[in-house]
Amino acid sequence: MHKNRITNENFYDEYCFFDDYLADYLNVDENGVTEYIKRMKEAIYEVKDVLPEWMPSIARFEKIKARFESLDNAQVSFDDFQGKDEDIVWMRILMEKIEAGADPLTKYSKLKFTFKKRKKSLLQRFFSLFN
User: Fold this and answer.
1) What is the pTM of this model?
2) What is residue 49's predicted lDDT score, i.e. its pLDDT?
C-alpha cells in the first residue's frame, strides 16, 4: 500500500474520532471541530493577545479541517500527498489538554477580563458620599 494512502487513512480516521470527541465535549450533536473553531472566533478579539496559542490553534484547526474535507469530498485521492502524521499528534495532544483543562477554550473560560476603571475625581467621590 502507498505510504501517502496509509498516512491519509490514519488522519481521516483520527479526524472522525476527534470531531466526535469535540462534539461530546462541547455538547453538540455533530461537527465538533467546526463548533470549536466558531467558539474560538467569537472570542478572538478578547483573547488573541492574552493567550499566545489562540491564533496558531485556530490556524491549525482550519488546516486540518480543510485537509479532512478535501479527502471526505473526494477532491483529492487518498494516494496524493496531503500532510504528515503531525496533524494526528496535534489532535491527540489537544484531546489530552482538554482532559487536563488546558485547552484554549478552557483557558479562556478561566480568564477574568477586568478593565481598569478610571479613578473618580474629588467631586465625584464627594457626591458618592451623599448618594
Assistant:
1) 0.79
2) 82
Phi and psi of 84, rounded to 5°? Answer: -115, 175
Over residues 64-99, the pLDDT tens digits come to: 999 999 888 877 777 787 778 899 999 999 999 999
Contacts of 32 (CB under 8 A, 6+ apart): 18, 19, 20, 21, 22, 23, 24, 25, 26
Give the number of C-alpha atoms closer than 13 A to the C-alpha of residue 75, restricted to the C-beta side: 9
Q: Taking a C-beta distance cutoff of 8 angstroms, is the pair 58, 105 a contact? A: no
C-alpha cell at 57: 490553534
Q: Angle at which helices 86-100 and 3-26 pack, to 10 degrees? A: 20
What are the CB-based long-range contacts (under 8 Å, 24+) for 111-115?
111/47, 111/50, 111/51, 113/46
d(CA 108, CA 115): 16
- Rounded to 5°, the CA angle 37-61-52 comes to 85
